[in-house]
From TrEMBL:
SUPFAM superfamilies: YbaB-like. Binds to DNA and alters its conformation. May be involved in regulation of gene expression, nucleoid organization and DNA protection. This is Nucleoid-associated protein CWM47_23130. Keywords: Coiled coil, Cytoplasm, DNA-binding. It is found in: Cytoplasm, Nucleoid. It comes from the Bacteria. GO terms for molecular function: DNA binding.
Length: 114
């Protein structure tokens, strides 16, 4: 592969990566905690789109401190799961966008482009 071909490939990689990054908003994942009592939905841009809390978890506005702490922990756990799941999907989308364009170069890591 000559240098001009390599530059052409890099421009194509940049273009495909840009398209893939723009489409990350369509990559959606939901994380659950507390056996589904709390669900958090995020997109590939790592924006929280929705938080769902089972109504039985919030029975009154005067929630004892222990219940409030448990709810906070469940929200954090569900958010972390959703973020981990969407990260995997987003990486896969970016990998597919550049598949076949670059040779397998040891140490070449495109993760920073996400």
């Amino acid at each position: 592969m000559n240098m001009m071909d390599m530059f052409g490939k890099m421009k194509e990689v940049q273009s495909r990566m840009k398209d893939a990054q723009e489409n990350l908003s369509t990559v959606i994942e939901t994380g659950e905690s507390g056996a589904g009592l709390v669900k958090v939905t995020v997109n590939g841009l790592k924006n929280v789109l929705k938080i769902e809390i089972d109504p039985d978890l919030i029975k009154s506005s005067a929630t004892p401190a222990a219940d409030r702490e448990m709810l906070q922990d469940l929200i954090v756990a569900a958010t972390n799961k959703a973020m981990g799941n969407v990260e995997i999907k987003a990486r896969e989308q970016l990998r597919q966008a550049t598949e076949g364009l670059l040779p397998n170069i040891p140490g070449l890591n495109l993760d920073g482009l996400m």
